[in-house]
């Protein structure tokens, strides 16, 4: 659903391309042996290479290359067997080398595409232009001293994948869906943890507007959008700003703008004229990266089932609705939980239990499925007890709450609390008779045509059985007795 | 003990083995000679204490039967090699006082082989120069003088001028160098010593302050071809820390010096005959050719048609890489920092004060060549020319085993000459640059004295990874030339 902005002169379409920087999951940095883990004391993870000491040389970390190939395959993209690392030259204190080693003309991953899920339940393809590997910069800290800045180089040299999309995204919702899908794929592949609040996934958004059918407008690159929410807000504000500007007779300048989440506005960082001349050239310290098809095939063989494949399989194999399937595949552990719980049981019932009961209560307690006190196998057993009429669906909800609290198996709780469903017709008949005898007025009213009172009788019988009576048997007997 | 400094490395190893003297004695003799010739300014930092300590350790090591390839041999180390806790300046003010907390792979290899470090030799700033006159730490003076004007101080060549002068003046038995466009071969020629730049990738660049990464290659100086063979073997080898270092076994280069060049074909590239080249340079070259023919080699004229583009290509590629390699000298982590409160000013002043004119000139050339809009016209074109230069060599090597050329278009010149004309200075490297662009091994052997009594040498260029034939032919040439002259200042 393309986002349309209603301007004074008509409708405007929002055109978006994104650059996502994803920190590669690897034990060490892209070109040095320093740890790449998050959260160490400042400058505790800095090698002589990371600090750009004289005479130090980069050595490519094979794991990072493998992760990039893996991600490329996950994005249905071309893996380039020949790629080249290039230097991007600029001065900044958190860039000790005075250049960032990146890939420019020859990235490791070429064109690909991913499917995004739109709010109306439809899907759309978004083109991937390229993915390349590059070094992260360090961090400048400006709030620790009145006149000095501090530099933390822990992140300096960590591997980043820059994933560039085609300008196929049409609005804030699609942008959010795109980021979410990229994040989901990266997490499935275990190539990036996707944690935007820790900075391990960051996005730059290229926004332009145009009248439907026209050429692309001039774009602004919006930086500092560090959450999905910020992406949505920044796009909405930037697109509106551009429409207002054009409609008031002004022109959009190509520039880099910064999103300010406090003021809820974008503001100019630098114009095209002020843009750096990065003087890219192939890094002479590194040989071109040549990859064997055999290695690509090996990596391909270890790819997990990806979100879209899984979703389609859930729909076909389990008969789930696209919505339920989407919810279940959103996280790889969630999908795995579901499949275990559904094994040997009614898959739709399992989907309902996972989505409505389990995710509901986990959400309430701020937990994810990995922390669930009820295991997938236990949930499956509970579903089994419903299916074989040991307990009713209603009782099962109580049992589930108990399971969540105690971690006990469903069967144990059912036995301990005597919750086994009464299916003995004789026993139920006795209760039905009691209820009829105790409520002569309502019996008369029912017989006089007040059909709705049937529910009252069912409720009374269930109450007497403490919920354990088989509802079908109760219905059948009541119908017989009340005529 | 003074004669100890006249020994070759080969002889000294023999003497140490036979216990004629100890490494401590050998080292002390060189320290004394260093004191005697301090005026040459061949060393930026002298490390006699470290040297004697290492020598003592080496003597003990030798006594225990554990003998490295250079066990107990005192060497000079070009100040471009990072040495643990010993000031490493690259000849620049911007690294003054910098003491690395790491040891370059080459010096590590040398020390593991028992070598002793006498000090850090002087050099052109960041290895940019052909005369050693761009060093922040003063000029190195060539120990050789012109017969007719003995007061005039001459350049030792560059950039490894300190190393070449120190070897020539017997202030060490050998010295490391690095060669980017001729920085080992040209000073070898000017100082009448023997030096080799091996194939690019033969020695690790890890811990060597970078000038132009795709060209920089460590190598060595000594007074004989055999000494260089022993020396190079001790410093070379694959290093996983340098992605451009080659995973190839290091041969016993000395074994290749068998004196037998019968049946070898020596290529004489006609493009190295340049207009205005002094007659005695040509005569020296002709004589070298004749010597090798007399020894049973065949000579053949070859053509390297793209030689004329080599210089221009080099002066794009090397400064381009340098402009990026030298970006790290920003005053933030090491070296002097200008006391400016605004970041931009701190960068500007630190670099303005820290770098000399030649370095600034090359940073500007390189920055310009890589700039948007100029990149294709300069850098890309230069890379194409570089490929053509390599193709020329490979074609020539289809019909010959090595090439014989002059190493430089002149002998050592007076300090101050060419200073006002960078292009003229750059031309000093015209005969060494093509092999650098092609990554080929090149060696210079002193062969004659010119009419002013200054040494002239000849260059042997070999196929990639074929240092053995380079040593073989250089060894034969050395024998035939029988160059025994010594710098007048030392007599």
Please tell me about this protein's structure.
- The complex is a heterodimer of chains A (483) and B (491).
- Chain A has helices at 62-74, 172-189, 228-247, 293-301, 307-318, 322-329, 332-342, 347-364, 376-387, 393-406, 410-416, 425-438, 440-447, 454-464, 471-482; strands at 4-7, 10-23, 82-83, 85-89, 99-103, 112-117, 123-135, 139-141, 150-152, 159-165, 201-211, 220-225, 255-260, 265-271, 281-282, 289-290.
- With 483 residues, chain A is of the alpha+beta class.
- In chain A, strands 1, 2, 6, 7, 10, 11, 12, 13 and 14 form a 9-stranded mixed β-sheet that branches. Chain A has a 3-stranded antiparallel β-sheet with strand order 5-4-15, with no helix packed on it. A two-stranded antiparallel ribbon of chain A has the order 3-16.
- In chain A, helix 5 crosses helix 6 and helix 9 packs antiparallel against helix 10.
- Chain A is elongated and about 95 Å long.
- Chain B is an alpha/beta fold and 491 residues long.
- Helices cover 37% and strands 12% of the residues of chain B.
- Chain B is built from 15 helices and 11 strands.
- Chain B has an 11-stranded mixed β-sheet, sandwiched between helices.
- In chain B, strand 10 and strand 11 form a beta hairpin.
- Chain B starts with 8 loop residues before the first helix and ends in a 10-residue tail after the last helix.
- The interface between A and B is large, with 30 and 44 residues.
């Amino acid at each position: 659903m393309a986002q349309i902005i209603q301007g004074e002169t008509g409708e405007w379409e929002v055109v978006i391309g994104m650059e996502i920087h994803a920190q590669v999951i690897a034990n060490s940095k892209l070109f040095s042996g320093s740890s790449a883990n998050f959260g160490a004391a400042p400058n505790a993870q800095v090698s002589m290479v990371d600090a750009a000491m004289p005479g130090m040389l980069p050595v490519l970390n094979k794991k990072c290359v493998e992760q990039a190939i893996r991600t490329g395959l996950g994005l249905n993209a071309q893996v380039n067997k020949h790629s080249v690392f290039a230097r991007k030259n600029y001065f900044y204190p958190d860039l000790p080398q005075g250049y960032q080693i990146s890939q420019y003309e020859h990235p490791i991953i070429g064109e690909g595409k991913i499917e995004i899920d739109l709010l109306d339940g439809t899907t759309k393809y978004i083109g991937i232009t390229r993915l390349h590997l590059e070094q992260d910069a360090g961090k400048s800290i400006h709030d620790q001293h009145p006149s000095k800045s501090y530099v933390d180089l822990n992140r300096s040299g960590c591997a980043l994948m820059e994933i560039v999309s085609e300008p196929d995204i049409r609005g804030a919702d699609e942008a959010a869906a795109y980021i979410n899908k990229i994040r989901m794929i990266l997490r499935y592949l275990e190539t990036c943890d996707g944690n935007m609040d820790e900075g391990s996934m960051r996005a730059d958004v290229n926004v332009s507007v145009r009248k439907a059918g026209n050429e692309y407008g001039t774009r602004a690159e919006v930086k500092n959008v560090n959450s999905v929410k910020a992406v949505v807000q920044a796009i909405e504000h930037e697109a509106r700003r551009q429409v207002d500007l054009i409609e008031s007779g002004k022109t959009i300048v190509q520039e880099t703008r910064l999103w300010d989440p406090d003021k809820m506005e974008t503001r100019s960082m630098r114009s095209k004229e002020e843009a750096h001349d990065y003087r890219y050239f192939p890094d002479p310290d590194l040989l071109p990266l040549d990859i064997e098809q055999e290695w690509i095939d090996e990596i391909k063989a270890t790819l997990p089932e990806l979100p879209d494949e899984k979703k389609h399989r859930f729909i076909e194999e389990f008969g789930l609705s696209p919505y339920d399937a989407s919810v279940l595949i959103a996280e790889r552990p969630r999908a795995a939980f579901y499949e275990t719980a559904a094994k040997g049981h009614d898959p739709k019932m399992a989907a309902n239990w996972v989505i409505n009961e389990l995710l509901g209560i986990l959400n309430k307690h701020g937990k994810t499925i990995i922390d669930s006190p009820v295991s997938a196998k236990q949930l499956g057993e509970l579903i089994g007890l419903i299916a074989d009429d040991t307990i009713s669906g209603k009782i099962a909800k109580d049992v589930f709450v108990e399971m969540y609290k105690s971690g006990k198996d469903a069967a144990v709780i059912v036995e301990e609390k005597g919750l086994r469903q009464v299916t003995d017709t004789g026993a139920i008949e006795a209760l039905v008779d009691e209820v009829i005898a105790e409520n002569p007025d309502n019996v008369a009213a029912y017989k006089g045509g007040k059909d709705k009172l049937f529910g009252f009788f069912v409720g009374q019988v269930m109450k007497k059985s403490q919920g354990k009576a088989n509802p079908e048997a109760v219905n059948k007997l009541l119908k017989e007795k009340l005529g | 003990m003074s004669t100890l400094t006249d020994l070759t490395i080969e002889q000294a190893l023999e003497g140490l083995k036979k216990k004629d003297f100890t490494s401590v004695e050998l080292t002390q003799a060189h320290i004394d000679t260093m004191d005697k010739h301090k005026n040459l300014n061949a060393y930026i930092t002298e490390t006699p204490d470290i040297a004697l300590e290492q020598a003592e350790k080496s003597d003990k090591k030798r006594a225990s039967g554990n003998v490295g390839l250079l066990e107990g041999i005192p060497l000079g180390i070009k100040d471009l090699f990072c040495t643990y806790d010993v000031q490493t300046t690259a000849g620049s003010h911007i690294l003054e006082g910098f003491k690395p907390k790491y040891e370059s792979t080459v010096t590590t290899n040398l020390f593991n082989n028992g070598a002793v470090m006498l000090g850090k030799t002087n050099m052109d700033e960041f290895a940019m120069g052909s005369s050693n006159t761009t060093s922040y730490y003063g000029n190195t003076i060539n120990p050789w003088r012109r017969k007719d004007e003995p007061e005039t101080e001459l350049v030792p060549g560059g950039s490894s001028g300190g190393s070449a002068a120190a070897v020539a003046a017997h202030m060490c038995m050998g010295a490391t160098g690095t060669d980017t466009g001729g920085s080992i071969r040209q000073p070898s020629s000017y100082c009448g010593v023997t030096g080799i730049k091996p194939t690019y990738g033969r020695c690790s660049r890890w811990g060597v302050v970078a000038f132009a990464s795709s060209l920089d290659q460590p190598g060595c100086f000594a007074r004989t071809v055999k000494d260089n063979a022993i020396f190079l073997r001790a410093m070379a080898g694959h290093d996983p820390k340098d992605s451009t270092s080659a995973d190839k076994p290091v041969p016993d280069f000395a074994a290749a010096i068998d004196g037998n060049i019968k049946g070898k074909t020596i290529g004489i590239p006609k493009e190295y005959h340049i207009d205005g080249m002094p007659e005695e340079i040509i005569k020296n070259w002709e004589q070298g050719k004749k010597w090798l023919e007399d020894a049973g080699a065949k000579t053949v004229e070859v053509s390297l048609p793209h030689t004329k583009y080599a210089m221009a290509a080099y002066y794009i590629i090397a400064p381009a890489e340098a402009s990026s390699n030298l970006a790290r000298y920003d005053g933030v982590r090491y070296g002097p920092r200008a006391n400016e409160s605004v970041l931009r000013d701190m960068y500007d002043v630190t670099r303005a004060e820290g770098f000399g004119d030649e370095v600034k000139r090359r940073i500007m050339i390189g920055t310009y060549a890589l700039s948007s809009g100029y990149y294709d016209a300069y850098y890309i074109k230069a890379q194409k020319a570089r490929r053509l230069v390599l193709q020329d060599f490979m074609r020539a090597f289809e019909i010959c085993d090595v090439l014989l050329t002059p190493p430089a278009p002149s002998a050592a010149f007076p300090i101050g000459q060419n200073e006002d004309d960078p292009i003229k200075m750059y031309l000093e490297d015209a005969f060494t640059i093509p092999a650098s662009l092609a990554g080929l091994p090149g060696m210079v052997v002193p062969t004659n004295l010119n009419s002013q009594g200054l040494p002239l040498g000849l260059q042997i260029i070999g196929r990639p990874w074929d240092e053995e034939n380079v040593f073989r032919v250089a060894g034969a040439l050395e024998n035939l030339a029988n160059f025994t002259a010594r710098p007048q200042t030392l007599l």
